Backbone:
């Protein structure tokens, strides 16, 4: 057995779990053992266990890729390190909340469905990225033309999508007379619980109307607002963590010190006391989700596209340019904050200042390229609703127009020096076809605006918006992203 954190002593600067891990049972099945979950829900759960000594263990599942990570996790007795990196100090914590793990490649779909159907499982949670919901990004409803949806409707006992797994497991629970589980989305999707509910119900109903009705009456889908900046792990971060803890840890992950979790208190089969370690259970999460998605994620996407084009590899690099910094703050305060409807006493300016500080953290190498991924799924919820708000109100939205124009220029797949951009997006083929027909010219703007899944049916005909976004695009292609941002 290789030396790892399960069988070798780590340095004394590391905070270790001291609760009895053998008492854990799988009560949460999590879909999406990616970077974020490791540094957020799994850590919250570990710290909750430290306080309560309860039995809420997690079974980790990756439905797409991540085989190596699951193999490694098993070799490490499901233990790994989270490095919380501030501008100056790093705190190292070992997460102990994971009981077991499964992967369809090694274990098969049936084992996963059976695990989710076990009577003690009370929650199925998800960090499966925006595209994992198989929803139309503009409407949040099931995209029936999605290849995974089509495959799973044809072969429901061997599902591929998260929706297919959840529906099949709920069917078994219903047939066996077992209480259902709560479905808890932890993705950056506006009204994530409502989108999960809409897509799952529609999928289930297409399969079997009675099952759809049973899920509707018996399952809950709380919305959650999740926040912590967790860049993908790199060989450099892993090396750095190895040096700090004194042992190799292939599942280690670095993140910022800040974290936040606001959860709608609507669980059908019990829940852990995550509030004991700082999570907030509230009746309505939607205002918090909107605040975070528009102010944090909206400006993140703005910085990702215009930052990448301007030659900045990381978000913290964009913050060294005064015009990007100012544009990000104005995007938050002038374009996004006015669209929000927050509980009394919410300090949005304080929030914006905190976000700028978080983006500036030089220890966090958060790549603009990473955030730029899957823009077709992100743009509608990060910028679409705010844009429509300003179009209705007749107020200024130039930051949103510039952000969208930056995205349009980015998906041309060629940067300002003529180098290829590795554009990752479920709609990449559509972007390719548009740019093959139009080249990097303003005529590409109209063609991109015609994509209804991103812009709906209204925006392409809105004269003010078309003019504003075309103007921003023209500026970017003639003067470059840095100069374009400076005009804001
Ligand atoms: P990651 O790339 O490390 O992991 C992605 C995970 O999604 C993997 O476990 C993969 O198996 C799964 N996945 C991918 N496509 C899927 C599909 N079609 N169906 C089911 N599962 C699928 O990404 P990371 O950083 O873990 O982020 C995942 C999501 O978490 C984000 O998309 C976002 O919604 C949310 N999030 C991420 C934050 C971050 O800073 N990384 C912070 C807040 C939320
Ligand atoms: C980012 C988010 O990758 C992205 O699109 O905007 O993952 C962001 O880091 C988180 O939402 C922060 O909580």
Residues:
């Amino acid at each position: 057995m290789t030396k790892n954190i399960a069988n070798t002593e780590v340095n004394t600067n590391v905070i270790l779990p001291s609760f009895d891990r053998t008492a854990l049972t799988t009560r949460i099945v999590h879909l999406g053992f990616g970077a974020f979950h490791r540094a957020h829900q799994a850590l919250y759960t570990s710290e909750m266990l430290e306080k309560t000594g309860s039995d809420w263990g997690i079974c980790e599942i990756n439905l797409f890729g991540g085989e190596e990570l699951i193999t490694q996790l098993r070799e490490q007795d499901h233990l790994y390190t989270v490095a919380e990196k501030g501008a100056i100090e790093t705190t190292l914590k070992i997460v102990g909340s994971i009981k077991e793990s499964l992967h369809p490649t090694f274990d098969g779909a049936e084992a996963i469905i059976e695990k989710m159907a076990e009577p003690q499982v009370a929650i199925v949670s998800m960090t499966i990225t925006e595209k994992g919901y198989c929803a139309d990004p503009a409407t949040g409803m099931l995209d029936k033309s999605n290849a995974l949806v089509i495959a799973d409707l044809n072969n429901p006992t061997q599902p591929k999508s998260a929706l297919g797994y959840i529906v099949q497991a709920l069917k078994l629970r219903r047939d066996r007379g077992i209480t259902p589980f709560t479905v808890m989305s932890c993705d950056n999707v506006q009204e994530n619980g409502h989108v999960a509910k809409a897509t799952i119900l529609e999928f289930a109903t297409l399969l079997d109307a009675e099952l759809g009705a049973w899920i509707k009456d018996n399952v809950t889908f709380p919305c959650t607002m999740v926040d912590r900046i967790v860049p993908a792990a790199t060989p450099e971060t892993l090396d750095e963590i190895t040096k700090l803890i004194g042992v190799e840890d292939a599942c280690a992950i670095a993140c910022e010190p800040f974290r936040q979790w606001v959860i709608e208190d609507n669980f059908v089969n019990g829940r852990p006391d995550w509030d004991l370690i700082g999570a907030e259970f509230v009746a309505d999460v939607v205002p918090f989700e909107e605040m975070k998605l528009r102010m944090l994620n909206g400006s993140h996407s703005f910085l990702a596209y215009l930052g990448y084009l301007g030659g900045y590899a990381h978000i913290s690099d964009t913050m060294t340019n005064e015009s990007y910094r100012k544009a990000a703050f104005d995007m938050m305060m002038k374009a996004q904050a006015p669209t929000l409807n927050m509980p009394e006493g919410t300090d949005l300016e304080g929030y914006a200042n905190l976000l700028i500080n978080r983006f500036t953290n030089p220890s966090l190498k958060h790549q603009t390229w990473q955030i730029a991924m899957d823009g077709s799924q992100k743009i509608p919820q990060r910028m679409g609703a705010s844009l429509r708000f300003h179009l209705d109100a007749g107020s200024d939205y130039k930051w949103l127009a510039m952000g969208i124009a930056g995205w349009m220029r980015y998906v041309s797949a060629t940067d300002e020096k003529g180098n290829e951009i590795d554009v990752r997006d479920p709609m990449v083929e559509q972007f390719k076809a548009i740019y093959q027909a139009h080249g990097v010219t303003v005529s590409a703007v109209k063609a991109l605006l015609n994509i209804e899944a991103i812009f709906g049916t209204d925006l392409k005909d809105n004269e003010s918006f078309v003019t504003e976004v075309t103007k921003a695009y023209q500026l970017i292609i003639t003067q470059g992203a840095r100069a374009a941002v400076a005009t804001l």
